[in-house]
Amino acid sequence: MAILTDTNTSSAAAQALQLLITAAQAGDNGALLKLCSDFKPLLSSEARREMFYNSLGKDAEGIAVLAFIELVLKYSGTDYVNWPGYARCRVHFALFDAMQKQGRIWENEIAVNTDSEEGTALLDEAGLQQGLPDDIAQLLLSLEVRQALKRLTAEQQQVIELLFLREQKPKEAARLLGCSVRNVTKHRLKGLDKLRLRLLLKQDG
């Protein structure tokens, strides 16, 4: 059976996915290769995002694959229905971290006046106005992540929920919250970073 790699898989596909992940964790290289093959389109779509590819080049695909393999080998959860969306999120965060280390786009963002038309244009070019994938919104609905969200500041929670659950653009979120687009960007970045760290700590624990 082919594994479905959409955000939500069917019950049968989730069971097949669980069997493959369990086998891979037990040292079955064939199962690991099968997972990498099934999820190759998802990994490639993340690695080829313009903001990642511009910063990391061809290394982006290698980083995506390594992050995926690490997740497969360390995963100890029980939710395999939403696992593909979780995998996309983890791969996205791995690429995000690598891009930060390159010191491109994100380092410069803090110096950009995001309230200006030029600043907004730069965010558009970097793909930030489009937000993260729809899978992030699905992930935010899970109990585990909702609990992690409660550890963020009120401002960070509001920004993340507006951008990813209510699908508001940064300008609209700023209007609703009565703050600048710069502050929306700041709360989004810090909130996602805290969320990522909490998920990683929970996963490693």
Automatic annotation (TrEMBL):
Q: Which domain of life is it from?
A: Bacteria
Q: Which Gene3D superfamilies match?
A: Winged helix-like DNA-binding domain superfamily/Winged helix DNA-binding domain
Record domain RNA polymerase sigma factor 70 region 4 type: where: 143-195
Q: List where the protein spans the membrane.
A: none
Give GO terms: molecular function aspect only. DNA binding; sigma factor activity
| One example of a Gene Ontology biological process annotation | DNA-templated transcription initiation
Pfam entry (one): Sigma70_r4_2
The record ties this protein, via NCBIfam families, to: sigma70-ECF
Any idea what this protein is called? Sigma-70 family RNA polymerase sigma factor
